[in-house]
Structure formats: C-alpha cells, structure tokens
Amino acid sequence: MTSTRNSLEDVWGPRTPYRGQWPERSDSSAEANVDTWIPSACVLCSNGCGVEIGVKDGTIVGVRGRADDRVNRGRLGPKGLYGWKANASPDRLTRPLIQTEGRFREASWDEAMELIVQKSQEVRRHYTAGAIGFYTSGQLFLEEYYTLGVIGKAGLGTPHMDGNTRLCTATSSAALKESFGCDGQPGSYSDIDTTDALFNFGHNVAEQQTVLWMRMLDRLSGPNPPKLVVVDPRPVPAALKADVHLSIKPGTNVAIMNGLLHLLIKHDWLDHQYLSAHTVGFEQLEKTVKAWTPERTARLADVPENKIRDAAEILGTAPTLVSTVLQGVYQSMQATAAACQVNNLHLLRGLLGREGCGIYQMNGQPTAQNTRECGADGDLPGFRNWDNPSHIADLARLWNVEPNIIPHWAPPTHAMQIFRYCEQGIIKLLWISGTNPAVSLPDLRRIRRIFNQKDLFVVVQDAFMTETAARADVILPAAIWGEKTGCCTNVDRTVHLSQKAIEPPGEARADLDIFLDYAERMNFRDKDGQPLVKWRTPEEAFEAWKACSKGRPCDYSGMTYERLSTRSGIQWPCTIENPDGTSHLYTDGHFPSDAEYCETYGHDFDTGAVATPERYRAHDPQGRAVLKASNYLPPFEEPDEQFPFWLTTGRIVYQFHTRTKTGRVEELQSKAPEPFVEISNQDAADYGIADGEMMEVRSRRGYVQVPARITGIRPGVLFIPFHYGYWDENSHPRAANELTLVEWDPVSKQPHFKCAAVRIGKPGTSGLVPKLVKTIVRKTLE
Ligand code: SF4
C-alpha cells in the first residue's frame, strides 16, 4: 500500500492490522518527479526508519519509506516525512566564522582550523590535554563518533568527552550495564508483533517514536491484541488506549516498580528455574520490595490500589512481555535504579532472549547508540571497561599507542561535570559538535554565564546559527544528513547505511572531514610515528571501527558497506560466521557480566559510588544477570508552599530536540509554533486560568512566559516542552530549561528534567503563591 496521507493531521495513518506479518505501507512526501532514490535512514528519533531520499537536479525533493525495511516496513512519521526540508533552509551556515570583539566574520577553513589547532596546542602546553573538552551529539554518524573518540582518547588523552546523550539515554546505557554487565538492547522490534503484553513506563511512544507506536497500534487493532500497561502522569496517547494507566505522582518511579515487583513475588509469578540458573541478587530484591505493599505504594505514588494490582497481574501473568522505558524514568529521580527494576521484572519472569520478550531501555536521539558504542561519550569504544587494565591494553594495541595516554584513572567526565569544569576555569577549550546546550541543558541562566566566561574558548560545529553557536569563538559549518555518508544504529541494534544524496551548501563539510582535518593538523601519531587516524573515507572509518568492535558484544565485524547497501538494516552482533546479524541477545541466558568481559563493575544506586574491581571479582556473577534492588528516595526538590506545582518537561510530536531542523520546516513548525504550559482542568478551574491565557511559570532558577493549555494532566503537575529557545523568537523567556535544576542521577549522571518545583501567575507578577492566597490569585488572573 502506498500512502501520501496528510501525516501532519493523521500522525499514525490508517491501521494495517497485524495478522501474521506486519503489512507494508510506503509513506511518501516526494514533491516532484524524482531523478534518483538514495538509500538512507531517518535520523529524527531512535527508531531509525529506513527511507529513500528523492533527488532531482541535485536537491532533495522528498522521501519515501523503504517497504523492505525491518524497522518500519515503509512507514514514516511527520518528522521523517518533512524533516528533509531543513537541508535547503536559506540560513544554513556555509563558511567558517570567527568571533572577535562580539562580531562574527567569515574566515577560510585554513584560518579557522589553524586557530583551533593553535589554541589546542597552547592549552595543552600550559594546562595539559585535561583542559580540553568535547561535547558531541546523538545525531552524527558512527564513523564520525569513532574518529572523535580516537582523537580525544588516543590523540589528546582527555577524559572530558561526552555527548548530549547524557541528557537523553545515559540511563538506558547505565541500566543495561548494571543488570546485564554491558550496554545493548536485548530484544528485537519483531517482539511487538507477537507479544502478549506491552508495558510503557515513562515513554510517550506515540509522540516520540511514531512509527513504533504504529506497530503497536496495528497489534492492538488485530486479532489477539496484547494487554497494555502505561505509567505516566500525563494522559499521553498510549495511556488513552491502555488497559491500565497508572498516573503516578512525579518522582515515585522506584516506589511503583517496587510495588509491582512485590506483587509478582507475593503471587509467585516467577520463573524459578531461570532465576536460579541465570541471575544473582534475588534475596536482596525480595527483602527490599517486601515493604512495598499495594497500600503503601498507592499512598506514596498516589494511584488507586486496585490499579496497581491490575497492572501487576498483567505484567505477572502474560506469557510474553515487551517493556519500553524512556525519559519519564531517565530524567527523573533514581533514574538508573528505576530503570533496573524493569530489567528485574523481566528477569524474575524469565522473559528475555526469545521472540515476544524484549526490554527497550529506549534511546531518544537517532544515533545515540553509536555515541555510546564508539567512545564519543567518554565510555571506551566497543563497550570496554575503563577500570579493566586488559581492556585498556587491548585498545592501546589496536591504536598502537602507549596505554597511559588512554584516560582510565577515573570514570570518564560526564557532561554536567564538563560544564562545571568550564565554570571553574579547569576546561579552557570546549568543542561542541551537533548539539545546542544553550537550550537543552538545565538552568540556562547558569549555562549562559559559563559561555560568557572570557577564558573559555568555544568551538561549535553545526549547520545553523544556534543559540550555542552564537556564543562560540569559532563556528565550523557542518554538512547534515543527506549530504554525507555514514552508518547509524537504532534502538534495536539495527544498522543502516545512509548514503550521501546531495552536496552540502557552500563550504560546509561532513563532521568526519572536520575531525580528520584536525587530527592531521595536530599531527597525532602512533608509537611508530605513523598517523594515529589512518582512514580518510567513511568506509575506511567503518572498517577501522569493525576491528575495534570485534569480539565485543557490539561486534560489527561481519558487516560491510556493500552488504549494508544491498539490504535494509542488519542487527549487531554480526560476524563473518553470523553475517545476517542477531535478532535477540541472551538467548541462552548467558550475560556479558563476567569480570573480565563486562563493561562496568557497577555502582551504589544511592550514592553513585563506583564498585571496585576487587569487590566485583569477589562476587563475580560469571555470566549471570544481576537483580539490583533499590529503596525509594524522595526527590531533591518537591512542591512546597512557595512553589506548589511539579514541573515536568518533555517532547512533542512535531519538533525534535531544540528545533534546529524541525523549527525550520514550515509544515512542522506551523503545527507547533510555540511552547505552552499544560495544566489540569482542575488546577485551571481552581486558579481561574483560561485555555490559551499567557502564564508566567517561575522556579527558584528563573521564569518563562507561555500560554496555558488545559488538558487531563494529573492535578498539581505542569508540563512544558523543552524544544523552544530564542533563535526565532526572543521577546520573552520561554525555554523550559530556564526552570530546571542542576541535579542528576548518581549512577547515569542524567539530569532531573522531570522534577522541579514551580509556581504560576500572570506575566509580570513574579508568580504568585496559589495555595496560600488562592482567591487573590484568581482575582489577579481575572
Ligand atoms: S519514527 Fe523516528 S525515525 Fe521513524 S520517521 Fe519518525 S522521526 Fe523518523
């Protein structure tokens, strides 16, 4: 079936019920007669849908879904169908820019790169490479991340590398490592087609991974639909379809999971054989959740007790189960601890490693998986363990460098700490690629202050003049999707090759070419005096990555550009012996948790303290999964009399990240032109707020002015989408991160975007205190 529906109005399209095979449906937005179709994958969320780019006369004129693709069977959501229009935006950056005395001037590539090299040498000479930091993205390609990882770790030897994946999927990685010993999603999207139950926990799948939700909707509309349990304080689209919707109080994720696991154990909904053969830690988990009776859980999470029992029965008795977890968990209190309880649910029931059973500790951004795999986020490439000397020796051999240049004396520096080091003057040069921290990091007033520091030299590599680029010393114009070649790996480990379809505008260059240029100018060498970075093309970089990944869980050694060109998506691990890839991990119940092989020795969930190798070896799980328990801890900041509302921030269907691309696509921007504050019917009535009325939302850190949107959100909770900054509208504060707080999960270091206390008022009133002076507030608002 070919579909040219209006996906802006009809986001998920017509139903094609699942009856033994997910039917194909090729969605298209091609505008003109296409000369050539170029194979690619959509890079506007972690679903990684297979697409073809339609090219006419050297420009992109549309896309269509790949009907043979294992991820989407031809379907595309609104961002996938229209996002390509940003490529032709008239305000693309086309020449390097250098800022002097507050003004940008155009420069040649030679001049810009020489300035960066001169600064790098100067900083390294005076302060060591520990004064250089890199902050990258979840939107570059695998080949670019790997090259950046080698430059940072073996060229400069700086531990200060991270991606904006810290804000998005750091908890996914941390939870997988803590439970299974290593990053990597165990399941396969085909699980959706056969599973008996779906569990969405803090994952607004309908708006974030629209095509994944289409797949779920097609199961729900076919014969034998799965049961659906949703945990979310908002009435997200999936909640409206759910058998059980638990609209919990923010910050209570661990409590609700402990309550559910309590009932599983109480009713003996357990796979005892699996537990004893393939896990450790059951006794501690049983002891921890014992106190979480339905009564206590219901009181704390503020949801009806009978709904907890209903949810537990579905999760405890379904023969197969697919769970998906995202920002409602990752950006909230006790992120890793809560995400691990979902892993525990599957381990308790032995629902892993077979068709219909999958855990998706979801990724947000399209290539976040590659940031993690390739070492661009501070982790070592190939899921190696920084605390294991044999893993360091392994990398040193591969790169032909001394082991000591590879940072491994302490955990890698996470993004929140990188910005703290910038604030303290410890990092002197910060190189930002493909991301926009001046909108996406918490407490933006502080972030702006950091960028304004005189002795911080900032390089920004981007396609547009973002809010961050505007604060840079040097801007390097970057090519984007469609203008360069490279691989991306989606959340179910499917690798796609995206081919270059058109030339980038002006002098813009692929991120890979920029990193290679830097490596050459810096003259990074290996032990034999040969160039450290030995590749020049994306395909050569991919071959180098294959060698690095070989023998590790994310083994790509059986893939080639040629094989990736002839079929639409291959799941790692993929070896010469297993060239078609692997649908499910842990099919034999063996996990990568052996002390010599694992990616981490684990953490204390409450403090984040790193477990020592000695301690881990003393209790080596030797290939078994670890059931890690956690007790509930209250949030750092909770509503009080001064700030009586919870604020959660998040995403909406038509925009991606800080709108750098989607905000420039008229079709998408016109559907979601401005931020808003979602407020419950009850709160709106209590405070006399009309739909669309301009409100001021204020926290201890700042304020925004945004119109009210009245919905069925949980009373006492407000929601503001985080996409909006100031590049296209700067007449009033409106970025949600003006309000958020600088606190993070102790294990994954992911910031708490979902837990801030705020108050509301009319613009210019500095916010009022509704609980204490409710009648005055109502009068004032009137
Ligand atoms: S679901 Fe994600 S990957 Fe697929 S078309 Fe939409 S934005 Fe692109």
Describe this structure in words.
This protein has 782 residues and is of the alpha/beta class. It has a seven-stranded mixed beta sheet, sandwiched between helices. The chain is 31% helix and 16% strand. Strand 25 and strand 26 form a beta hairpin. The C terminus is likely disordered. It is globular, with a radius of gyration of 25 Å. The protein is built from 27 helices and 28 strands. The N and C termini lie far apart (53 Å). The structure holds iron/sulfur cluster. Iron/sulfur cluster (SF4) binds next to helix 1 and helix 7.
Gyration radius over CA: 25 Å
General form: globular
Count of beta strands: 28
Low-confidence stretches: 769-782
Helix content: 25-40%
Strand order of the largest sheet: 7-6-18-17-16-8-9
What is the count of DSSP helices, taking H or I runs of 4+ residues? Answer: 27
Give a short account of the largest sheet. 7 strands, mixed
The ligands found in this model are:
iron/sulfur cluster
What is the SS-derived class? alpha/beta
Give the N-terminus to C-terminus distance in angstroms. Answer: 53 Å
